[in-house]
């Protein structure tokens, strides 16, 4: 387990919900935190509730889709706290329209925040994470919707979260042995204002009468886990460099069904004609196995 006391984290989407839960858990553990969000007023309101952590947190108005701003944010964190150890790419939005009806503007918005926000975070912060020679970590917030398909209107969201998961898994392998760990956080329902935030930030109007698997007027997130619980669990996962940080045990059977369905789709075991292909695949397999072995050794 890595020592987190005194380490510095940059968290996007930190004005509310899970991002704020991460910030609270990190401050509780003695870390320094930069809370970044596109909503300045919400950031200030959140900071008012942070309690006795004066001097250990800093607010930054940042749009994760703005690459120049993200690059400046990385410089600013180092100016304020000297180093940065943990990047939490957490800002996220849910789409408002069924995926087959949504226009490009909505696709660009959701993928811009939920996928390119992660890429922009890594491009901007990775050099700073590696610069100090101490341990460092990237936490990407995906979702159970990154593992299980979603009914309308969740299709754009699920697309972005599957991408966030794929990005994280490959990044973890790419950075193995570099001193920078990568985890993907996949929560189920968490009690946040994501639906309201999405309606506020969406470039297209939300259709209040549109399809909902949960019933008209039902905010499914009201049944969710408190964000601070997710924040504390995520900190454990970061400290132990876990690949997947899963928080909702009720999804286990459903996920097993998804994997079973995929495994059932394979053709019968390949015959001798597959030998050349398998030989080609061996290099890739060995590279992944070596990365995983080095991660296991380091933990
Ligand atoms: P939230 O709406 O409370 O927090 C998201 C934050 O991201 C907001 O403060 C919002 O202002 C900020 N944001 C949106 N666009 C931004 C941009 N372009 N640049 C910077 N900040 C931006 O919602 P919540 O639930 O806390 O969401 C946080 C993350 O957790 C998201 O990635 C979401 O997809 C994910 N998640 C949420 C679950 C839930 O049940 N609430 C479940 C699984 C994943």
Describe this entry's structure for a reader.
With 299 residues, the protein is an alpha/beta fold. The chain folds into two domains: 8-263, Rossmann fold; 267-299. It is 47% helix and 12% strand. The protein is built from ten helices and seven strands. It has helices at residues 17-28, 40-48, 67-81, 104-114, 116-131, 155-174, 194-201, 227-239, 252-264, 275-298, and strands spanning 8-12, 32-37, 57-61, 86-89, 136-141, 180-186, 244-246. Strands 3-2-1-4-5-6-7 form a seven-stranded parallel sheet, with helices on both faces. Helix 3 runs parallel beside helix 5 and helix 4 packs parallel to helix 6 (155-174). The termini are close together. The mean pLDDT is 94. Residues 12-13, 15-19, 37-39, 42, 62-65, 90-93, 113, 141, 143, 187, 189-190, 192-194, 197, 201, 221, 224 line the site of 1,4-dihydronicotinamide adenine dinucleotide.
Q: Could you name the key traits of this structure?
A:
Rossmann fold, about 45% helix, binds 1,4-dihydronicotinamide adenine dinucleotide
Quick structural gist:
The protein contains ten helices and seven strands. The protein has helices at residues 17-28, 40-48, 67-81, 104-114, 116-131, 155-174, 194-201, 227-239, 252-264, 275-298, and strands at residues 8-12, 32-37, 57-61, 86-89, 136-141, 180-186, 244-246.
CATH superfamily of the largest domain, called what?
Answer: NAD(P)-binding Rossmann-like Domain
Bound compounds, please? Answer: 1,4-dihydronicotinamide adenine dinucleotide
Binned strand content: 5-15%
Biggest sheet: strand arrangement:
3-2-1-4-5-6-7
Tell me roughly what share of residues is in helical segments. Answer: 40-55%
* Alpha-beta classification: alpha/beta
The overall pLDDT, averaged over residues, is 94
Indicate the low-confidence ranges by residue numbers: none
CATH topology of the largest domain: Rossmann fold
Can you identify the CATH class of the largest domain?
Answer: Alpha Beta
What gap, in angstroms, lies between the N and C termini? 7 Å
SSE pattern: EHEHEHEHHEHEHHEHH
- Rough outline: globular
Count of helix runs: 10
Q: From the alpha carbons, calculate the radius of gyration and give it in angstroms.
A: 20 Å
What's the main sheet like? 7 strands, parallel
């Amino acid at each position: 387990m890595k020592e987190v006391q005194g380490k510095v984290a940059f968290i996007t989407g930190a004005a509310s919900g899970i991002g704020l839960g991460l910030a609270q858990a990190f401050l509780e553990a003695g870390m320094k935190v930069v809370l970044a969000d596109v909503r300045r007023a919400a950031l200030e309101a959140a900071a008012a509730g942070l309690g006795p952590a004066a001097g250990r947190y800093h607010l930054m108005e940042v749009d994760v889709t703005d690459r120049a701003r993200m690059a400046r944010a990385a410089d600013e964190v180092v100016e304020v706290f000297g180093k940065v150890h943990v990047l939490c790419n957490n800002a996220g939005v849910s789409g408002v329209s069924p995926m087959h009806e949504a226009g490009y503007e909505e696709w660009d918005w959701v993928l811009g925040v939920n996928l390119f926000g992660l890429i922009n975070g890594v491009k901007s912060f990775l050099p700073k994470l590696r610069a100090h020679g101490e341990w460092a970590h990237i936490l990407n917030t995906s979702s159970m919707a990154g593992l299980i398909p979603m009914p309308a209107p969740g299709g754009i969201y699920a697309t972005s979260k599957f991408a966030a998961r794929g990005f994280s898994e490959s990044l973890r392998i790419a950075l193995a042995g570099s001193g920078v760990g990568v985890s993907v956080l996949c929560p189920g329902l968490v009690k946040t204002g994501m639906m309201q935030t999405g309606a506020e930030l969406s470039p297209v109007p939300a259709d209040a009468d549109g399809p909902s698997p949960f019933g008209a007027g039902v905010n499914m997130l009201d049944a969710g886990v408190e964000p601070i619980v997710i924040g504390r669990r995520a900190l454990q996962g970061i400290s132990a460099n876990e690949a997947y940080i899963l928080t909702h045990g009720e999804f286990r059977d459903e996920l097993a069904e998804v994997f079973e369905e995929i495994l059932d789709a394979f053709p019968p075991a390949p015959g001798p004609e597959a030998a050349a292909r398998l030989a080609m695949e061996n290099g890739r397999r060995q590279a992944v196995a070596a990365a995983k072995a080095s991660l296991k050794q380091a933990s």
